[in-house]
Amino acid sequence: MSKKEQFLKEISDGYLFEGADIILGGAMLDGEVMTDTLVKLPLETLNRHGLIAGATGSGKTKTLQIIAEQLSSKSVPVLLMDIKGDLSGIGVPSDGHPKIDERHEKIGFPFLPDSSPVEFLSLSDEKGARLRATVSEFGPVLFSKILDLNETQSGIVAVVFKYCDDQKLPLLDLKDFKKTIQYITGEGKEEIEKDYGRISTASTGAIMRRVVELEQQGADIFFGERSFDVEDLCRLDENGKGMVSVIRLTDIQDRPKLFSTFMLQMLAEIYATFPEEGDLEQPKLVIFIDEAHLVFEEASRALMDQIEAIVKLIRSKGVGLFFVTQNPADIPDDVLGQLGLKIQHALRAFTAKDRKAIKLASQNYPITEYYDVDQLLTELGIGEALVTALNDKGIPTPLVHTMLRAPQSRMDVLTKSEIDEILDGSRILKKYNEEIDRESAYELLNEKIEAFQEAEEQEKLKKQRDKARGGSRRRQKSTLETIVNSTTTRQIGRTIARELTRGLLGVLGVKQTRRRRRR
Question: Which residues sit opposite 119 in a β-bridge?
């Protein structure tokens, strides 16, 4: 058997699956496309997560689009993180092109333009249904990890959450959290220390600075109501296609802290609310995280541990995660080891460091006698990739150089009017864009602080009045004493004078009486 015949047999056997599947493209050997030798992905293994990597301009975003639109057509809802703003085109059919027809003719697969139902979501000021979550939904552990707090500071955050729970103070947004910190270190300090122990003002100051840092990246927009219900990510349209939810993130590339905060919260919410599904015939939801390095590069060690734990566990919920990035080295090893599908586009070797990275990347793939992987990684054309997946039995498929099919939808952005048209037809836009600012910890604690300050003011006024009354009484007493003393003095004087007079008059009277008797 020749090398070509052996290759064709291995690829045909390795990528022949029963049931529904995703068609990626055609197999290649020695730079030639093997027509009618299709490279497929079994739908039932796409909750085992995946990686799409490659240099800028190598075609990885279009690969993402190819997989997402096929998942949608097979009734699998999809969530896309659109960092660069070039994924909105999935909502309209492709206009076609002679080069697309030429590519598909080589693959041996017809090109049929199509579109997917799209829902635009927003984490910032971009148009779309607003994504929000409350501080309470994060919980003290996750919220502390996002702020990268130490053990002492995390303990204070736990006290804040416990106090708000005990006092029935809704902890909805960051101003609620900040107001609670202000209260427990100010007017409510004695109350808190009595029930929960002493709290260090140095630690609360550090926590406040971390919250301000998060606010500066726009998190004040994200925290609040109405909370996004992750079940709204799992909808089908009237034709049974999975809804493709596109989160427009073009204005937060310079705010990685907000992006990683959002991603972790959403994954944690999905894991907490979705039921255990085990192995399904197809995923319940597939999430594509474009520019995935933004999730990891600003993450603390505690945050990384949380992400890694969720990646390992969320598969059992029927959810698949696909990380899209320039280099596999952007993904932590513990996460990379959990990925069942790997699609590697071209890497560029301009420096010794680049060549070392390419050598390391090549070691992530199964050993093959058909390709010099190190060299091929630098020679792949646009829309070509090395592919290995898990077959329907969970075994890695042979590594294959693949010419990828073209997306059935537009490979360009939608116009403003096209985006507005999709937004006008949204079933959830009005629900999540309604402004809600109900009474929460901020307002309730403000009332307590005002009542406390008013009581203090009343006490101060009372003391002033008492002091004033005390002075008046002292003055009255002094006057009375003066008067009394004056009267007493005069009375004593009169008494003495009277007694003296009586004495003198008595003597004089006796003498006068005797004189009259003698006469």
Answer: 245
- Please check whether residues 196 and 179 belong to one and the same domain: yes
**Amino acid letter, 85:** G
pLDDT-above-70 percentage for the chain = 88
Q: Is the pLDDT of residue 17 over 80?
A: no
Would 54 be classed as within a structural domain? yes
CA distance 93 to 106: 22
118 Cβ contact partners less than 8 Å away, ≥ 6 residues apart = 88, 90, 91, 243, 244, 245, 246, 422
Whether residue 510 has pLDDT greater than 90: no
| HSE, side-chain direction, 13 A CA sphere, residue 423 | 21
Domain count, the chain: 3
Full DSSP string of 142-174? HHHHHHT--HHHHHHHHHHHHHHHHTT----SH
Q: Which residue has the tokens 């902890």?
A: 171
In angstroms, the Cα distances linking 41 to 5, 21, 168, 389, 490 are 22, 5, 50, 7, 121
| Closest-CA residue to 122 (of 425, 419, 440) | 419
**Residue-averaged pLDDT of the chain:** 84
Residue 85 lies in a domain: yes
Q: Of 255, 256, 222, which Cα lies nearest the Cα of 135? A: 222
pLDDT of residue 502: 40
Neighbour order of strands in the sheet with 244-248 = 32-42, 21-29, 400-404, 384-388, 341-344, 50-53, 319-325, 285-290, 78-82, 244-248, 118-122, 129-130
Domain span at residue 165?
Answer: 135-220
pTM of the model: 0.81
Residue 296 in tokens? 């990891």
Q: What gap in Å lies between CA 485 and CA 481, rounded to an integer?
A: 6
Q: Give the CA diameter of the chain.
A: 186
The reply to whether 158 and 281 lie within a common domain is: no
Nearest to 58 by CA among 362, 344, 352: 344
